Amino acid sequence: MSIRLGVLLSGSGTNLQAIIDRIEKGTLDASIELVVSSRMDAYGLERAKKHGLQTLTISKELYAEPLVADEVIAAELKMHNVDYVIMAGYMRMVHDPILAAYPNRVVNLHPALLPSFKGAHAIQDAYDYGVKVTGVTVHFANSEYDCGPIIAQQALVVEEGWTVDELEEHIHAIEHELYPNTIQLLAEGRVRVRNDGTVAIS
Length: 202
Fold this sequence. Notes:
Elements: E1 3-9, H1 14-25, E2 30-37, H2 43-50, E3 55-57, H3 66-79, E4 84-87, H4 96-101, E5 106-110, H5 122-129, E6 133-140, E7 150-157, H6 164-187, E8 191-193, E9 199-201
Parallel strand pairs: 1-2, 1-4, 2-3, 4-5
Antiparallel strand pairs: 5-6, 6-7, 8-9
Helix pairs in contact: 1-6
C-alpha cells in the first residue's frame, strides 16, 4: 500500500532528499503530497521544487503564535489527504492541532538514542559527554519533546579521535537509511502502538 506523506522541515532537507530518492527508486511505497517549511530560506524548499512537490512556508514572521501556525499546517495536510506527517529536521515543536489530526501518525527523527540526549543539540551533547555509542531514533511525536513511542533505533559506535563534524556525518548517513526504511514499515502497515505506549513491529 502506498502512503501519502506531508514532510515538515526547517533546513537543508537532506532527509527529504533521502525519502525522495527512495520513492523514485521504487523502494519506498509513498508519495510526498506537501512539504512544509518553518523558514523561508530553507534549502529543503529548493529540493522540493526541483522534484515538482507542493510547498508551504509557515515562518515565525507570518505566524508568531505556534498554535495558529499548527492549525494552518494541519488544515493544509488534511486538504492534501496526507496519511503520515514526517518531521525531517523540523525545528519547531508540533502542537495539538497537528497531533490531534494525526494521532500516532506524526513521525520524528532524532540524532541520538532516546531517551538519551533529548533536545536540539543532541549530536554535540553526546560528543561532549564522551559517549562510546550513540545513534539515531525514529519515534512518534507527542506533546512532550522527544518523548513519543520509539519505532526504530540504530546504534553507532563512536570511533576514537572523531571530530564532532565526523560524528555528525556518520549520524546523517544512518538517518538517510533508517528513516526511509521505517517509513516503508508504516507503508506496509507493520507498525502498531500498544496500549502501554510501546511500539510493536510485525
